[in-house]
Amino acid sequence: MTAYRYIVEQIRIAPEDYPPDIVKVCAQRLGISSARVSSATVVRRSIDARRRPVLVLSCMVEVD
Fold first, then answer.
1. Contact 4/62 with Cβ under 8 angstroms?
2. What domain count does the chain have?
3. Long-range contacts formed by 44-51: CB under 8 A, 24+ apart
4. pLDDT tens-digit profile of 11-24?
């Protein structure tokens, strides 16, 4: 049986990289393979003081 856990990450995105592949972003931030990220959802979007998009992502990750 496969177990999963949710991880919430806040990331800043360079405007030229927006919109990102959020599954890939979750995997990179967590240092894992994209194959282990079952799903990713944008929980909140905002703009920081430098006018960069800020996303809060919820990532469902497969754990061993």
1. yes
2. 1
3. 48/12, 51/15
4. 887 777 777 788 99
